[in-house]
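Proteins fold reproducibly. Take a sample protein:
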Amino acid sequence: MGEAKSSQPTKKFTLALVQMSMAADGEANLRTAADRIKEAARARANVICLPELFQHRYFCQSEDEARFALAEAIPGPTSTALSKAAAENHVTLVAPLFERRAAGLYHNSAAVIDAGGELRGVYRKMHIPDDPRYHEKFYFAPGDTGFCAFETAACRIAPLICWDQWFPEAARIATLAGAELLAYPTAIGWLPEEKKSDGEAQVDAWRTIQRAHAIANGVYVAAANRVGFEPHPEGRGGIEFWGNSFICDPSGRVIAEAARDREEILMAEIDLGRIDEERRGWPFLRDRRADAYRGLDRLYFGPAE
């Protein structure tokens, strides 16, 4: 008897991550993103992911009500411009946006725009951090979309955003929703006073947790980070965004990684056939005990309770 062959055809495409630094001018950042999309498409990219809140410098370093004026509806001017770019370049986009959902209601969101310019869906960041120079709870309501995967011309994409990277529950639920690619638009970096003592450990932890999501779920994982120093608007330090955008395969192997100190378009071939191969060898989804995981819907149930 001959070797058994898969009934599923192998599907391959090229993924590009845009690692960019942000200017003070939002329109300039949008033009830069459009140029990078065109450049990646010319290099035969099929799916392109931009960094978190790419249209602006990271305004969450301080709490300023004036910054709410930066938000837009979806659909709106920026998502419309990106839909046009997707259609003109025949690419699927993961496009992070500062979303104005209603008066006084704002989200840190990501639109998935398909290669014909169609809006496939919007994900709203579920985990909202509040740390020194990361005052996101002031600006963003927690998302209510759940963890979802959107069908596109290339594959089923689950957009997750930055702080979501650290939560295995998010990656697992997105996988159970059918995701083949977890795309993490990101804005993460060092506080200058911490870089010398903790910088390398922070980058290693960030990379390791995401590689673990790829391994545990048998999916591709991609993180598109911004790069460069952005000063605090009130002159109190700032954040040095550490770049290091990367793509890893379903075994957790890093197949492409960007530098930490410059802009870059990072590209890698995605072979969806690898997902089935990895899950046959490491059948974590088969051996899950969903019946035994009661309690994951509770915040805590330790001995004190």
